[in-house]
Amino acid sequence: MAASETTNPIFDKKHIIPERYLHLSDGEMIRKIYEKKRQFGDDLLILAHHYQKNEIIPFADYVGDSLQLAKEAAANESAKHIIFCGVHFMAETADMLTTADQKVYLPDALAGCSMADMANLEQLEQAWQFLETTYAEPVIPVTYINSTAAVKAFVGDHDGVIVTSSNAETILKRVFDKHQRVLFLPDQHLGRNTAYQLGIPLEQMAVWHPKQNRLEAEGDLQNLKVILWQGRCCVHQQYTVEQIKTLRSQISNLKVIVHPECPIEVVQASDSYGSTKKIIDEVAASPEGTKWAIGTDNNLVNRLIQSFPNHDIRSINASAFSCITMNRIRLAHLLWTLEEIEQGSTIQQITVDEATQISSLKALERMLAK
After folding, report:
1. For 163-183, b where at least 16 C-beta lie within 10 A, e where not — what string?
2. Percent with pLDDT over 70 in the chain
3. Residue 298 falls inside a structural domain
4. Which of 65, 92, 158, 368 is positioned for an S-S bond with 276, CB 3.0–4.6 A?
5. Residue 364, domain member (yes or no)
6. pLDDT at position 10, please?
7. Is 57 within a domain?
8. Looking at the domain assignment, is residue 358 inside a domain?
9. What pTM value is reported for the model?
10. pLDDT (tens digit, 9 = 90+) per residue, 153-188?
11. Euclidean distance between the first and final Cα of the chain, in Å?
12. Domain that holds residue 145
């Protein structure tokens, strides 16, 4: 099955959860899921992203951000079945990093990523034509791991690299040590925040608008070092400087930490920023009683509130919605997936075709290279 085909199974009725699962109580489903886990033993690996609902987390063998989970998938060569409780691009990445004998499943085909969907292969090819005719020197494509396998493959075939929010600064610095210009996609905010942290001024960055197929820039295009794709995370767009100012006016000695998918003005108004893992680690390392306001998915923020009762933790925006597609996966989806696997069904399996996989792995391997 081609990678492009894996992104559109959601319109097929066979991917809709059977009604019988919707009539089971939570207690029944929890009991059945644990029972299936025991039956599968080491043949099963369940991965869950930090943004998953609390009901899913207890069943995960590993909970982490996208980089952590990618590494766990790559390291485990014994599990025959890997259930990825996350979103589509994460399951694609896991399929590319595991062996041919291992199968990766996404419990709900509708668990996509709106950011990843903001950059498709056709748009990228059009942008590339513009860049090739505008610049004599090579432009290096850098894609956030929150992108489709098809985009990763293009990046791999054009000497590019994949980054995560954990390693974006390290990888981008490595690229700029050898090259003078990059195309960063699909999240403009991660690209802008990372480049700015590396000392690149905002006037040397410009935004590419894929729908209009144009570059929004002032002055000499040859002065640009970073072309930012016009993409963003809907969740992290909900945090603002005004919210931070209000909290600081109400709470003394407040520490603010946000995810780098937030707009640059929000990052600059914070005390620190970083990946999901960094946020967790920084809160965990702080003294008891530290007052925190956090700008990331509220499922994680609420879990941190529960995990560190001796800290004073809140969301920058308690009314912000959590990732809608990430949160589609519920107990019923997990149970359904386990029972389908038991019956030999591959209905929820995510596969990436060999050609796309080979090209994407070039970019992934460049990311993982020391």
Report:
1. bbbbbbbebbebbbeeeebbb
2. 96
3. yes
4. 65
5. no
6. 44
7. yes
8. no
9. 0.89
10. 999 999 999 999 989 999 999 999 999 999 999 999
11. 32
12. 116-229
